[in-house]
Write a structure and sequence with these properties.
The structure holds 2 protein chains of 2 kinds. Chain A is mostly helical. Chain A contains 16 helices and no strands. In chain A, helix 3 runs antiparallel to helix 7. The mean pLDDT of chain A is about 90. The chains are: A mainly alpha, B mainly alpha. Chain B: This is Quinol:cytochrome C oxidoreductase.
Chain lengths: ~475, ~450
């Protein structure tokens, strides 16, 4: 794929005196070893949150959607906020694995596996909401165009909510296949390294008999490239379609043509923040600091800066065009003078501070390379991007065209519990993943060891690089 | 050292002269009075027999496009007001005067379309160049001199565009008409942004910002070739990042100023980025064309077909990206069908149907078909074919941004348009040729140059 020569000015991506063997050992260790106490504690907390959320979901479905805080004006609130938030988080995974592959960014290799895992687990959480926010979720299969005994009654393909069904399900399946394909050589590595016959059996099944022949690798690379080429437009279109849920409407604040690229940029922004949150902890607890280096964190911070900048320009555009349009209704949208001073002023300013002001600190190189600060900023962005979706949905709905239907939204404990439950479920899945899957694509990292490994770069500096 | 081949030089001079004559002709032959317009219309009517086409145009005026689209369903009074600006003067002037104004605008618009088209190529190349620096790209440093050569055109090109937008007045920008604003509440509301002094100040800022970055990045890039430390490179890195921030903001305001305010009631939040996509894909296409030209003449042996492959990939990808934004804007406006927004597309579909949809074939379908195959992206003549599709397509795109908003249905593609295109094409070739010729085309001492020269995949 890429040239073996690398400019000396580039910083190394693999630190220390690592050999191919060391990589296998380091990546295999968390899978082959035993879980420690803190893992069990965190896992239990996540599991409890998940079970609580499950209870809330069952309560909602069995009692009715009225147990949520929705009202006749605001028919979408936490449900769709959380849906868009989770889908957005998922986007960084595909961006890292597909878009960065197309741009031949070698640094992606240490982070892509976990980012993709995060994608899949986040999309699973997102996928819950379109079902559970239905009034009659047991009829959810009616959204599928299946021939039936109602005179073959079909769906209307004009609704972006139906496009969502196709977008999310395609996105989940393609991401899953892409992820799994990349896992084959790594599962095979675990299969070959483990001493337990049970693990050997399991990883033997999971790795589909991968034996790493030349022909296999050749096709493996080609498939990765084709899937990356397909996943890139997919990732753009999925969040675009999610944005269409709002932008196709005539609700002031929702109807805005910038939504497709702006939502995508916001998705990458929030997704990378989540990757930072997870990987900063993972590199520590799984002893992967030699692979997920400060440089990786800095690069991800740069992507956050870029997408955050794009989102900021979109905010300014929305704000400006809201004024420029001269439409009086535009003064009550989520980015307007009215929102900044109205009853949801706190949500407006939470968005501005978390997404616009705090990330500006990453322009300072010292802070960008500071792991603790990065972790804090990433958390703040995650909160800010939740508020962005909340503001778009709730503020815009709360003050629509008729003043007689203006109202406010109050979440109930079921709204909150369901959201907490998805966070718990996400971490249950992610924690299980971190213990059973090779969290770094070791086969890929091995391909850059000799061009970008610290010790090899030093050797080249000493002996000349020709 | 490259020199513009003498035949090409002569060709460009001929284009400039021919273009200049044609543009002058275009300006001199516009009708001067309402009487002229009546004569023209009478002639047209005679030409068309029963005058069917002209008739429908005429009727379209008082009712405006919104009414036609909405038929008898009824529409808000406010929407009517909004729609009134598809013809700049509203209802206060006679139809003949209106046509007169549009006919007088035509040479202005024709010149502006071509002037902006070539300027945006230079500007787009500058952005691409800045991105290469900011991204520390390892493949593209061998192309730096080529990109710098193309951006030579930015200074003269942007000055010409600046002069046109400043002096076009009410030909382009109805909000500069005081009588119109006096009777229009919506425009009064926008006067804080859409007023002439601020408009000019903004244009000056864009001009300064873009050209200063061009000047300093070129200077640093040449200084890098003379030194052994990476000082100038580091300066350029910082300058590029700052320029990109400056650019993303000014590109948005530029689009609102120069294009969106041609129909000052209409607005779309995506608009600025849509214009950027057009700019960017055309720019990359021109880099590829110039690279192929230089390669054919044997000036750049260090550029391989792998570099061409990458450029072609960018042409391919950003053609799709452009289509994505085009669709995003079009579909959302079509779907919601809000009267004050939809006027923009109604006039384009009713009066420019072939161009409007033909552009999609040129800008999307053809690049996909031609450039999908990996091997084809390394074959120069294949890339040239795709490039022709893309450049023609994006010329039409700019044409469709300007013409429907300024001359409405009184458009044509004749001497003024062709002459303006030829003039700026000639100027572009001449200036870029001179720009490429000043220094060696091989950038030296760039930290990534060796990576770039050894680049293969």
């Amino acid at each position: 794929m890429s040239s073996h020569y690398e400019a000396p000015i580039r910083e190394p991506l693999v630190l220390g005196e690592k050999s191919y063997h060391d990589i296998s050992v380091d990546v295999g260790a968390p899978v082959l070893g035993k879980a420690n106490k803190s893992w069990w504690i965190v896992f239990t907390i996540a599991l409890v949150a998940f079970l609580w959320g499950l209870g809330c979901i069952i309560y909602t479905i069995s009692t009715g959607i009225g147990v949520w805080g929705l009202n006749k004006t605001i028919g979408w609130a936490w449900d769709i906020t959380n849906f868009v938030w989770w889908v957005g988080i998922g986007h960084a995974g595909t961006l890292i694995s597909a878009v960065l592959l197309l741009f031949r960014q070698k640094w992606r290799m240490a982070v892509n596996r976990s980012a993709e895992a995060m994608t899949i687990f986040a999309v699973v959480q997102a996928g819950l909401f379109p079902i559970i926010h239905m009034g009659r979720p047991w009829l959810a299969y009616w959204v599928l165009p299946i021939p039936n005994q109602f005179g073959s009654l079909w769906v209307n393909f004009n609704s972006p909510l139906l496009w969502d069904v196709f977008a999310i399900s395609t996105y989940l399946s393609v991401s899953l296949v892409f992820w799994w394909t990349g896992l084959l050589p790594d599962f095979a590595m675990i299969r070959d390294r483990t001493t337990s016959p049970f693990q050997k059996k399991i990883y033997g099944i999971l790795s589909f008999g991968w034996s790493g022949r030349v022909k296999d690798w050749q096709r493996f690379e080609e498939v990765s490239l084709v899937l990356a080429g397909l996943a890139t437009p997919l990732v753009l279109s999925v969040h675009t379609i999610v944005s269409f849920d709002f932008a196709t409407s005539v609700v002031p604040g929702w109807h805005s043509t910038i939504y497709p690229p702006y939502f995508v940029a916001g998705a990458i922004f929030s997704g990378f923040a989540m990757v930072q949150t997870l990987l900063i902890i993972m590199r520590k607890v799984s002893n992967l600091e030699a692979y997920i280096t400060v440089l990786h964190i800095e690069y991800m911070n740069k992507v956050i800066l870029l997408t955050g900048g794009i989102v900021t320009v979109a905010y300014i555009t929305e704000y400006f065009i809201g004024w420029y349009s001269g439409v009086p209704y535009e003064n009550y949208t989520y980015l307007s003078f009215g929102a900044a001073t109205g009853p949801y002023w706190w949500a407006f300013w939470a968005l501005i501070i978390c997404n616009l002001i705090v990330p500006l600190s990453l322009w300072v190189k010292k802070l960008r390379r500071n792991i603790v600060w990065t972790f804090i900023v990433a958390l703040i962005i995650n909160i800010g991007m939740w508020f962005e979706r909340f503001d778009i949905i709730v503020i815009d709905l709360s003050k629509d065209r008729l003043t007689s239907s203006w109202t406010m939204f109050q979440p109930t404990f079921v709204d909150i519990g369901t959201f907490m439950g998805t966070i718990g479920f996400f971490f249950v899945l992610f924690l299980l993943y971190a213990r059973t899957f090779p969290v770094i694509a070791q086969a890929e990292v091995k391909t850059i060891l000799k061009s970008s490994g610290e010790s090899f770069k030093r050797l080249r500096a000493e002996h000349g690089d020709d | 050292m490259y020199t513009l081949p003498s035949k090409l030089k002569l060709f460009s001079i001929i284009l400039i002269v021919l273009g200049l004559v044609g543009i002058t002709y275009g300006f001199l032959t516009t009708p001067k009075t309402v009487e002229d317009v009546k004569k023209i219309m009478a002639e047209q009517e005679a030409h068309h027999g029963e005058g069917h086409a002209v008739e429908s145009h005429d009727e379209g005026h008082d009712a405006s496009f919104v009414d036609e689209a909405r038929g008898e369903e009824g529409y808000a009074e406010a929407a009517m007001e909004q729609a009134a600006d598809t013809h700049a003067e509203g209802h206060s002037v006679s139809h003949e005067e209106h046509v007169l104004h549009q006919l007088q605008t035509r040479p202005w618009s024709a010149t502006f379309v071509a002037a902006f088209f070539f300027m945006m190529i230079a500007l787009g190349v500058l952005v691409f160049y800045a991105i290469q620096y900011a991204a520390q790209a390892g493949w593209s440093p061998v192309l730096y001199r080529i990109m710098e050569g193309i951006t030579t055109y930015l200074l003269p090109g942007s000055v010409i565009v600046f002069l046109i937008v400043v002096f076009a007045g009410t030909h382009f920008y109805p909000w500069q008409d005081h009588d119109l604003v006096a009777g229009d509440k919506i425009l009064q509301g926008k006067a804080g942004y859409l007023n002439f002094p601020f408009f000019v100040i903004r244009a000056v800022i864009y001009l300064l910002g873009w050209n200063l970055y061009r000047y300093f990045s070129r200077k640093n890039s040449l200084a890098q070739a003379e030194t052994n430390n990476y000082g100038p490179y580091r300066k350029n890195f910082k300058a590029s990042v700052l320029f990109l921030i400056f650019f993303i903001v000014t590109e948005a305001t530029m689009s609102w100023d120069w294009f969106m305010s041609m129909t000052p009631h209409w607005y779309s939040t995506l608009f600025a980025w849509y214009i950027f996509a057009s700019m960017f894909v055309s720019a990359i296409t021109v880099i590829a064309l110039v690279t192929i030209h230089l390669k054919n003449l044997g000036h750049i042996p260090f550029v391989s077909d792998k570099h061409l492959h990458d450029l072609a990939k960018f042409m391919f990808a950003f053609s799709i990206f452009w289509t994505y934004l085009w669709f995003g804007q079009f579909m959302l406006i079509w779907y919601a069908n809000i009267p004050e927004e939809v006027t923009y597309f109604i006039i384009r579909i009713q009066e420019y149907k072939l161009l409007f949809f033909g552009m999609l074939i040129l800008n999307f379908v053809m690049p996909i078909l031609v450039l999908m195959n990996s091997d084809y992206k390394r074959i120069p003549w294949f890339v040239v074919i795709a490039a022709v599709f893309i450049l023609v397509g994006h010329y039409i795109d700019i044409f469709l941004l300007v013409m429907p908003s300024t001359v409405g249905h009184n458009w044509g593609f004749g001497i003024p348009e062709i002459a303006a295109f030829l003039f700026f094409l000639g100027l572009f070739i001449f200036i870029v040729g001179a720009g490429l010729g000043k220094v060696s085309l091989r950038p030296k001492n760039d930290p990534f140059i060796k990576e770039s020269e050894n680049y293969h995949f």
